[in-house]
Amino acid sequence: MSSTKLSLLICTVLSVIFSINTQTVHKRFEYKYSFKPPYLAQKDGTVPFWEYGGNAIASGESVRLAPSLRSQKGAIWTKQPINFDWWEVDVMFKVTGRGRIGADGLAFWYTTQRGDYNGDVFGSSDRWNGLAIMFDSFDNDNKHNNPYIMAVVNDGTKNFDHKSDGSTQLLSGCLRDFRNKPFPTRARIEYYLNTLTVYFHNGMTNNEADYELCFRAENVALPRGGYFGLSAATGGLADDHDVIHLLTSSLHSTQQQGGQQISNDEQQKLSQEYQEYQKKLEQQKTDYRKEHPDEVRDKDGEFDDWFESDGQRELRQIFQGQGQIHDILRDLNKKVDEVIGKQMNSLSMLTAVYSQSQGQPIQPGQAPMQMPALPIGRQDWDALVANNQLMINTIAELKGFIIDVSRKSDSLLAMGGAGGGAGGAAGGAAINPQFLNEMRDNVNQVKQAVNGVAQRLSQAPQIAAQSSCPDVSCVGTTTLLLVVAAQLTLMFLYTLYKERKEAQAKKFF
């Protein structure tokens, strides 16, 4: 028994689903609730069947609800309420601005009363009774979730929460970018059988069929007899909010379109008249072909030139792509030629300046002079850098030897002072030969180091040997190092001698 009830229930559900799916929805364009270019606005600036105010501006091609100025608001509303329950609205708009982010946004309204033209909610009134589809471009709550498209239903008692961007009040929504697109963006809003559906066209292509589902909400109860409207507002940041068209269609089911039922006799009569008309038309075609045999073409190939196959379409697209590539390469070739020409002009100007600095003006028809090469080449510069580094290393080694000799002399003087306090002049005389031997060894080490440096420098490539010195006398690096080493040695010996005399003088105190 339970299986029988279950089967009946399944059959009932399937029949209901089949009836719903087979039910046809008819559309009817409602021109009194629509506007589109061209001649969108009349000569006196009015839009037929619509009223606009605030900072809105209507032209023959679009309605600019809010210009790209700070704190601008504007709106446009239908003059009469709608007289149908279900509807579909197609809105084409452009939101453009120079900033990375925009403000504040645009909104589509369906409310029981027309809103203000300078309201607080995207240019319209707060506490509305009906539906608002908001295209919010400014991130008030700083959650990085804008631009955002959302639907908010209000019963006329709630204030819109700007701080949270209406996140606590929205019915549904989707994150979509609609600013600064190459083509106008579009939104298709459908309300049928208490189901609200919003489709969005991102404006990246010019194909009118590139819609994607933004959101769908069911069990949405809207009041009857409302007004359509569009509004926009700007804040500290500003965008141009342009609406190109708003097309409204009323939706009717099969039962609503039925109206008066046609009887079977009338249906047979109409079908018979239609068949007679078809026969008469075919007879007229046959008579025309007999009277004009030269103008008659093959029936099978009559429309072949009007259509193309898949292969022909692909070849046409390939040829178009190749043509575009060819145009781009041609433009690049022109730009490269312009750059080369600018470089040649710059070189000629530099040559002229150099020639004038040398006191030789360029004569007309004379080839420009070539700028001379630099006197020092890359190899000479590398050799100079290597020799400089070698000189630095040698000086560092000499400094180390001098510090070592100074340290040893200090220790010897200290020992000599201690011996002088104990044994007098005899102790100082005993130390002098040892001190002279140490000094002789240190001087020999300094000489060996200088000789080693001279040998290494003689083996390295010299700048002076590669370049000529016509006007000044050239001094070799080896000679310079030997002079420096001799000066350091003399200074060192003088210092030791002075310290020795001072140490001997202290012994008498």
Provide a concise account of the structure shown:
Helix content is 43%, strand content 20%. The chain has helices at 2-22, 254-258, 264-291, 310-357, 378-423, 425-459, 463-466, 477-506; strands at residues 26-29, 50-54, 57-58, 63-66, 73-78, 86-96, 105-111, 129-136, 148-155, 170-175, 185-192, 195-201, 212-218, 227-233, 240-252. The N and C termini lie far apart (138 Å).
Oligomeric form = single chain
Please compute the radius of gyration using only Cα atoms. Answer: 49 Å
Low-pLDDT stretches: 16-22, 419-431, 463-472
The CATH topology of one domain, please?
Jelly Rolls
GO molecular function: D-mannose binding
Protein name: Protein ERGIC-53
Keywords: Disulfide bond, Lectin, Membrane, Signal, Transmembrane, Transmembrane helix
Organism: Papilio xuthus
What can you see in these coordinates?
- The chain is of the alpha+beta class and 509 residues long.
- It has helices spanning 2-22, 254-258, 264-291, 310-357, 378-423, 425-459, 463-466, 477-506; strands at 26-29, 50-54, 57-58, 63-66, 73-78, 86-96, 105-111, 129-136, 148-155, 170-175, 185-192, 195-201, 212-218, 227-233, 240-252.
- The strands form two sheets. Strands 1, 3, 4, 6, 11, 12, 13 and 15 form an eight-stranded antiparallel sheet that branches.
- β11 (185-192) and β12 form a beta hairpin.
- α6 packs antiparallel against α8 (477-506).
- It is found in: Endoplasmic reticulum-Golgi intermediate compartment membrane.
- This is Protein ERGIC-53.
- Keywords: Disulfide bond, Lectin, Membrane, Signal, Transmembrane, Transmembrane helix.
- Residues 27-251 form the L-type lectin-like domain.
